[in-house]
Recover the amino acids of this structure.
């Protein structure tokens, strides 16, 4: 009798969950809808992953000989209404993804649970067969971290909580109005951004396949090619206030110390060169408290300031900007790192110009720092052609 009651309760629970999801999708749809507009599709998807770890350092070669596997669940909605896409010419998905990865080495690497927000421009969005480019940023928990005695070969992670950055390419086929089959390639990066050492960070590409189900189906309309984007400001400038922290002293022993703060600013100017693209050049000046602690430990009275010049590309997808910049130090007294570095940033525009986001700084294959940024973008219509 208990078993029967349990099954009845479980069936009732499933009905309640399904009803709740359906109601939530209708509310999302109603919120996104304007009079006489077609509701934007809301989808739930699942994918299986299989991949490998890139041994980007000699110390990682032996521990990298595994094949990570995992599963993802994602919730996404598609914005394709002409009044929202005519300026960008892009139909894009937005959503949240949840991952579970098993790194195929339980004693040393363990597993990870992660979640991220993403934006995903679609190419050929109105067709049955279409492609997409997904970029996102989130948080990841890893179960096994470095320990000098118990786990000395795991130089990937030294903290359980890390940041997840991803850049993925997907191919989709709409089998029915509600169901589509997907396959793709993910490039995943998990790192604490150098906030604790060791922090080689893990780069693990994965292939994936799965399907998505439209809990609220709708018509995906092709973005109108009006050239309206040319009426947008062609020239722009932005400034960022920068903040971050590290909780390690750089004495070579990976010993934990007090929190060391980093702060500074970056400014850039740029020009939009296409519907989705812009080029920008800028400069940043950061006071690195972690570097100050390291210099003090060495008895070095050199400056803790770092100055750099940067040039790169900005991917524009509505209010979302994804930046990739190459930087060169113009002021770095200690000279403990390469002269060049990369910076990857993801930003969201609020209102008329408020920018919030985060960037990852890396020297070649080694992640150096994640930071948080708040700023403002200035756009000048008078400089248009």
């Amino acid at each position: 009798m208990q078993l029967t009651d349990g099954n009845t309760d479980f069936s009732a629970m499933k009905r309640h969950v399904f009803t709740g999801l359906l109601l939530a999708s209708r509310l999302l749809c109603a919120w996104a809808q304007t009079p006489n507009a077609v509701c934007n599709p809301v989808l739930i998807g699942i994918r299986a992953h299989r991949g490998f770890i890139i041994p980007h350092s000699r110390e990682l070669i032996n521990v990298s000989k595994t094949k990570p596997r995992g599963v993802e669940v994602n919730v996404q909605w598609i914005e394709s209404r002409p009044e929202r896409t005519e300026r960008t010419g892009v139909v894009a998905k937005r959503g949240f993804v949840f991952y579970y990865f098993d790194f195929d080495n339980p004693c040393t690497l363990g597993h990870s649970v992660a979640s991220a927000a993403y934006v995903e421009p679609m190419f050929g969005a109105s067709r049955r067969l279409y492609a997409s480019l997904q970029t996102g940023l989130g948080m990841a928990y890893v179960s096994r971290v470095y320990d000098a005695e118990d786990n000395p070969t795991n130089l990937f992670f030294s903290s359980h909580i890390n940041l997840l950055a991803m850049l993925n390419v997907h191919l989709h086929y709409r089998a029915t109005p509600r169901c589509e089959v997907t396959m793709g390639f993910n490039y995943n990066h998990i790192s604490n951004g150098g906030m604790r050492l060791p922090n080689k960070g893990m780069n693990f590409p994965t292939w994936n396949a799965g399907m998505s189900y439209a809990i609220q189906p709708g018509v995906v309309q092709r973005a109108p090619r009006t050239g309206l984007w040319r009426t947008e400001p062609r020239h722009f400038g932005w400034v960022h206030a920068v903040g971050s922290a590290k909780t390690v002293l750089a004495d070579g022993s990976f010993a934990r110390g007090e929190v060391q703060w980093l702060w500074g600013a970056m400014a850039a100017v740029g020009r939009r060169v296409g519907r989705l693209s812009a080029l920008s050049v800028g400069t940043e000046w950061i006071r690195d408290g972690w570097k100050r602690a390291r210099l003090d430990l060495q008895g070095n009275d050199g400056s803790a300031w770092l100055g750099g010049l940067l040039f790169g590309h900005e991917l524009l997808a509505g209010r979302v900007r994804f930046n990739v910049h190459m930087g060169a130090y113009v002021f770095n007294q200690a000279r403990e790192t390469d002269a060049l570095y990369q910076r990857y940033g993801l930003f969201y525009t609020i209102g008329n110009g408020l920018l919030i986001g985060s960037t990852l700084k890396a020297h070649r294959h080694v992640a150096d720092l994640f930071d948080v940024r708040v700023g403002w973008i200035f756009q000048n219509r008078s400089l248009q052609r």
User: Anything to note?
Assistant: DSSP finds three helices and 16 strands in the chain. The chain has two domains: 31-216, 232-383. The helical segments are 2-32, 82-85, 289-297. The longest strand covers residues 256-272.
